[in-house]
Amino acid sequence: MMGRVVLVAVAAAVLRIVLFAGVELYEDEAYYWLWSRRLAFGYFQMGYASALAWVLFLVVLALTTSQFALGQRWVHYEEGSRR
After folding, report:
1. Residue 34 to residues 9, 22, 28, 49, Cα–Cα distance (Å)
2. Are 46 and 40 within 8 A, CB to CB?
3. Which tens digits make up the pLDDT trace of 18-52?
4. Do 51 and 35 form a contact (C-beta atoms < 8 A)?
């Protein structure tokens, strides 16, 4: 069963890469990334850009960690099938 789940996840990732490989992000989709680049290389304010990168990293890390922590409450495993 776990092998099927991994196979489906890998197939979905490959399909996503194939479908969206040539699609570029627009400014409204990558606003903070583009803004940090403009700060860093346009105005030579590397401190603000690197601080923004760290803040975004910590926000994404916190959201990811909370999803994994809460996922244990949302997912029901049968008796003895969880490893």
Report:
1. 30, 19, 9, 10
2. yes
3. 888 877 777 777 777 777 777 766 666 777 778 88
4. no
Q: Is the pTM of this model over 0.85?
A: no
Residues sharing a CB contact under 8 Å with residue 27, sequence separation 6 or more, in sequence order: 34
Please give the Cα distance from 11 to 18 (Å, whole number): 11
CA 50 and chain centroid, separation: 18
DSSP classification of residue 16: H
Query: Which residue type occupies 30?
Result: A
Total residues found in the chain within this entry: 83
